[in-house]
Write a structure and sequence with these properties.
The chain has 291 residues and is of the alpha/beta class. The protein contains ten helices and 13 strands. The strands form two sheets. A seven-stranded parallel sheet has the order 9-8-7-12-10-13-11, with helices on both faces. Strand 1 and strand 2 form a beta hairpin. Helix 5 packs parallel to helix 10. It starts with 7 loop residues before the first strand and ends in a 5-residue tail after the last helix.
Length: 291
């Protein structure tokens, strides 16, 4: 274990006073330094899944994403940056969260990948609302079953945020929306969209229907209704239900839905990627919304 170095005090402008104030930057030279344990082996999904939720933390990658996490009210635990990029955080009030700086080589050895954005931050998680709380506040939502691809999950949250959907409900087996890759692909929009776990699955879909939503199951099945042909009543308060890439929705989830809907395909294509399908369907359901 390397000896802890004295903090390097950089002068930064204070966002509150407009004056410069010294903020300590701790230099990290050992990738095994215990102070940066939050950032260990970030590419090991199994390890991170066992580490992050139980410890109430998540990792934000990139300056834009970490700023969105701060604006959304997530408290920072610490920052880890390329030593040459410390000034990118110069306007932030880092509070009690330490700022660690290291060379690109040390960053890569600690995290397991080349941190080409040069900026990472560890944040404390906030309590996740209950499904009942999400249902009470939403008019339109997306429900996901067994979506375990973090890239797809992040892209879905970005589409949901952009296209006016109010919330996301997740089956118990869905991936963690605050996993680093999901957060990065969503460009931090996962912080802007309320989400909750829907359990037990799929029986809890009855709770969605009881709250006044029409559950629309996305499927390429030939008997499905083209989504643009839904009636006014069917479109009034919708819960769009989508399954994982490949297998799609389970029979039980399909049976618990109200209407089976399809995005009509051309040129013999049978379906879209689940994130692309979510975006198309959300746009269609909200196309008449006032801007």
């Amino acid at each position: 274990m390397a000896r802890a170095a004295s903090p390097d005090r950089r002068r930064r402008p204070s966002p509150d006073t407009g004056q410069n104030r010294p903020v300590p930057v701790h230099q990290i030279t050992d990738p095994d330094d215990a102070r940066i344990a939050d950032y260990r082996a970030l590419t090991d999904v199994e390890l991170r899944t066992r580490w992050e939720p139980p410890h109430g933390l998540f990792i934000a990658e990139g300056e834009l994403v970490l700023r969105r996490a701060l604006r959304a009210g997530y408290p920072a635990r610490s920052y880890l940056v390329d030593a040459k990029r410390v000034d990118q955080l110069a306007d932030l009030d880092t509070g009690d969260a330490p700022v660690y700086a290291a060379t690109p080589d040390v960053l890569e050895r600690a995290t397991g990948f080349h941190v080409h954005r040069g900026v990472l931050a560890s944040f404390r998680r906030k309590p996740v609302p209950t499904a009942a709380e999400v249902l009470a506040a939403a008019r339109r939502m997306v429900i996901l079953e067994d979506v375990n691809n973090h890239t797809n999950l992040g892209a879905i949250f970005r589409a949901v945020a952009a296209l006016g959907v109010d919330a996301v409900l997740l089956s118990p087996s869905c991936a963690d929306p605050l996993y680093r890759r999901s957060v990065r692909v969503s460009m931090g929009e996962v912080f802007a969209v309320p989400y909750a776990r829907l359990d037990p699955w799929p029986d809890a879909l009855a709770q969605v229907r009881a709250a006044g939503f029409t559950v629309l199951a996305m499927t390429p099945a030939p008997e499905a209704v083209p989504i643009q042909r839904l009636t006014v009543d069917q479109r009034a308060r919708t819960a769009l239900l989508l399954g994982a890439e490949g297998p799609g929705l389970s029979r039980a989830a399909m049976h618990a839905s109200d209407v089976r809907v399809v995005i009509p395909m051309r040129r013999g294509v049978d379906s879209l990627n689940v994130a692309a399908a979510t975006a198309v369907a959300c746009w269609e359901l909200g196309r008449d919304d006032p801007w």
